Amino acid sequence: AKAGGRSTICFFDPAMQAALLVRVKLEADLRQALENHQWQLYYQPQVDCVGHFTGVEALLRWQHPERGMVSPGEFIPLLESTGLINEVGEWVIDAACRQLALWATKPQLRELTISVNISPLQFRDSDFLGRLQQIFVRTKAPLERLKLEVTETLFVEARDAARDKILSLKAQGVRFSLDDFGTGYSSLAYLAQLPLDQLKIDQSFVQQVLDSSANAAIVESTIALAKSLHLDVIAEGVETENQKAWLLAHGCHAFQGYLFGRPMPVGEIEAALLAQCS
Ligand code: C2E
Ligand code: CA
Ligand code: CA
Ligand code: CA
């Protein structure tokens, strides 16, 4: 509410007012976090059919001074509604690129890819390509190892503009994965027109493949679709050996999920990766 004057808004619902106060506090904290470097990237392994690490997904964590680790489910929407997503998203890409440049100097780690989540708002920003270019020049990251995860919402509006941006990044070696596939507005027709590299089967389907024949059918047709469009396919949220076995039997050969490793700080992921090499 604005201070003073006749534009003061009155809240008659105490619960609503309390919720708003929490949100206002969180937003102020988010601005602080930008200045105080409270962000951290965790990395979750992605594996091939024999369990070898092929890459990682970078997942943002916020180390809040009082609340501890805050989950992105809570703050990403707020970053988006305040526009702070551009700045934080830029930090994420920069951090991932610095990590890639560092891994490029280590023989056992140089082949790994890093997948970075990109909010549709961030991707649509007119400065997005320019910001990325600066990061690429500054970090000298091997761009063939960088994968950007976008969601179907990106293509609901301004599809051609999104397509052009993807093409210009792909010309530099960057690859694209369609995250949360099956949960959005996808029409199959548009998929064929998009220059993507990978479909990522959403965890909500993966976790039900053995319990729901409807979900199993969705996963099967997603795998078939990926094949016929010459896209890679990866399943996320794989938690059990049975889920993995089912996916493998149905032609999905890349996995991510707690079964193979949780998201972890960079030191831990490096130790796990190096242990596997030796
Ligand atoms: P997402 O991109 O779908 O990421 C997968 C989420 O599933 C992650 O949650 C991950 O920790 C969790 N997960 C991985 N394996 C399993 C599993 O086997 N079982 C279960 N139950 N969960 C699993 P997290 O890290 O809390 O991130 C939540 C969402 O926040 C992400 O969903 C993504 O949409 C968003 N996010 C995270 N980091 C970023 C970022 O840097 N930028 C943007 N724009 N969004 C981000
Ligand atoms: Ca993702
Ligand atoms: Ca996902
Ligand atoms: Ca998700």
Walkthrough of the structure:
This is EAL domain-containing protein. Helices cover 46% and strands 18% of the residues. It is of the alpha/beta class. Strands 1, 2, 3, 4, 5, 6, 7, 8 and 9 form a nine-stranded mixed sheet that branches. α3 (85-103) packs parallel to α5. The termini are far apart. The site of one calcium ion (CA) has 5 residues, from β6.
What keywords describe this structure?
single chain; 278 residues; nine-stranded mixed β-sheet; 11 helices; 9 strands; binds ligand C2E; binds calcium ion
**Count of discrete alpha- or pi-helical segments spanning 4 or more residues:** 11
Output the radius of gyration. Answer: 20 Å
**Sheet with most strands:** 9 strands, mixed
Helix and strand content put the structural class at alpha/beta
Protein name: EAL domain-containing protein
Organism: Vreelandella zhaodongensis (Halomonas zhaodongensis)
Domain EAL: 23-277
Sum this structure up briefly.
The protein is of the alpha/beta class and 278 residues long. It has eleven helices and nine strands. Bound molecules: ligand C2E and calcium ion (3 copies).
